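Hi everyone, sorry if this is the wrong subforum. Our group has a chain we'd like a structural model of before ordering constructs, and none of us has done structure prediction before. Sequence below.
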Amino acid sequence: METLTTDLQKNRTVKVLKILLWLYIALAVGIAALNYALAPRLPQAQAMMIHRAYQFYENEFKTFLIILVAALGWKLYGTGPGRRMQKTNLLAFCISSLLIHIAAPLLSGNPELYYMAMPLPWSTTGLQLMTPDSNFYLQHLPLWGLGGIGAAVVFFIAMNAFVFVGTLLFGRRLQCSSLCLLNGFVAELWAPALPLVGKARKPGKRGIALVRLVRWIFFALSVGLSLWWLFRAAGIQLPGDAGLLGRFEVAKYLSLELMAAMLFWVVWSGRGYCHYCPLGTALSLVARLGRQRIRTDLKRCVSCSACNRSCPMYLGVMEAAQKALP
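Answer:
Right subforum, don't worry. Here is the predicted structure as tokens:
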């Protein structure tokens, strides 16, 4: 009877998690559409109301939701060595959201500082803020002033340095399982409820190969954009229109990152977007410099494939373990 009660409680918790994620997706799509599509066409007063609602959603509401879901997941995970790491990730995302979405805006007076928490080559907003002819700079100069822009640039540089050095020391889990407030926090916090529709499905070899191809294409595109804005910020003029590239990056973020990640949550897995995230690709290379890698020679492999099934990125852990690779 006790086991049956526990199972019922877990099922109810998973249902609540699914409802909360559907709510998060609905609000993300609705408010983003209002902020990016409707607000620019409205009078300034009405556009500012929508923008403030977007800021509240991104900061206070998102932080509240992360803490609520982490509390639900904490009870759901129970105890054990493997659960300890999952609970650590839940706690880390709560701290990250409180720092980035609550503390940093309060201390700086800038409610949009979370833009600067997206390291290169994932987002070039920090570099665009260093470029006076970019749309991002022109739009935010009246809102933030030169002092606010300077503080945001410093925060952007500090975040990039922190993530780079932290990855060298601790591996890319620091970013992907502690700091990523675009996709990583959903993959960790809502893991028991994913996917929202149907059951989890592992892609075939062709599917994985296709995603890996897209990964490197997307990485090359993101690095190219980062270098273009870096040269532009340094005063080196390259072919291309700053306004057009800025609008392209907004469209890229909304379609290939935000909307694509949500689609993966619904039909595939929480780590779907991570397969081609340009920041994740860059940090995987950085981690190799710091000799951060999965150890597969610690125990004798019995070829049960449990490691492959549990890996959210579908890495060939078992194949490496069979060869006792370090």
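For your construct planning: The radius of gyration is 21 Å. The first helix runs from residue 2 to 38.
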